[in-house]
Design a protein that fits this description.
The chain is an alpha+beta fold. The chain has 4 helices and 13 strands. The chain has helices spanning 12-20, 45-56, 118-123, 129-136; strands at residues 28-31, 34-37, 64-67, 72-75, 80-82, 86-90, 100-102, 106-113, 139-144, 149-154, 163-168, 172-175, 181-184. A hairpin with a 4-residue loop joins strand 4 and strand 5. The longest helix has 12 residues, at 45-56. Residues 1-9 have low confidence and may be disordered. InterPro entries: Nuclease_put_TT1808 (IPR012296), Uma2 (IPR008538).
């Protein structure tokens, strides 16, 4: 049985240790409600993640890379730790000691919502992911795989993202600095749940 614990600044290091010491070996994140197991992604997401990676790669700033490898990134100031589905990160982040990366090394994160994660990725976005990402990560993409649409959050600030835009899959969407290109979302509908 998975029990979640409320994170606080005081016990955040203990929660990180607990995430890595899980006896079942499953991946987990630290959200507002504590340690939450990460469910395996549906296989149909793989082509969408590959397509997104291919479209981002030519626009990635020098010294950064696009990854889908399951690493945990921490946001200690908000007591959160996330393992994004896809992310663009400063390559130097992987030279640091330890088992988790610094969230401030991320320049873009993307999450694909599934039935089990939609509430976490989307409904609670302001209290968890977007609130933490919105202070330091320039671009946050939420691919809503149930509704067939992409929401881009941009313009981070101390209060979170200042702007967002939602488009249906198949429509282009501008991706701001440090990328500065228009993302083609044609093909993303292949991962939409029936």
């Amino acid at each position: 049985m998975d029990r979640t614990r409320e994170p606080s600044g005081r016990d955040f290091p203990a929660l990180l240790r607990a995430v890595h010491a899980r006896p079942d070996g499953r991946r987990a994140e630290i959200l507002g409600r504590g340690i939450v197991p990460v469910e395996p992604r549906p296989l149909r997401f793989r082509p969408v993640m590959k397509l997104l990676r291919e479209r981002l790669l030519p626009h990635v700033p020098e010294g950064q890379d696009v990854e889908v490898a399951p690493f945990l990134f921490v946001f200690p100031e908000s007591g959160r730790a996330f393992g994004p589905d896809l992310y663009v990160v400063d390559e130097e982040a992987f030279g640091a000691p330890g088992r988790h990366g610094n969230g401030s090394a991320l320049s873009l994160v993307a999450e694909l919502t599934s039935g089990s994660t939609k509430e976490t990725d989307w409904t609670d976005h302001w209290t968890d992911r977007a609130a933490a990402y919105g202070r330091v990560v320039p671009v946050y993409l939420v691919l809503n795989m149930q509704e067939g649409q992409l929401t881009i959050f941009r313009s981070p600030s101390e209060q979170g993202y200042r702007a967002r835009r939602t488009v249906p899959f198949g429509s282009p969407v501008p991706v701001p600095a440090p990328f500065d290109f228009t993302l083609d979302t044609i093909g993303f509908e292949a991962g939409v749940a029936d």
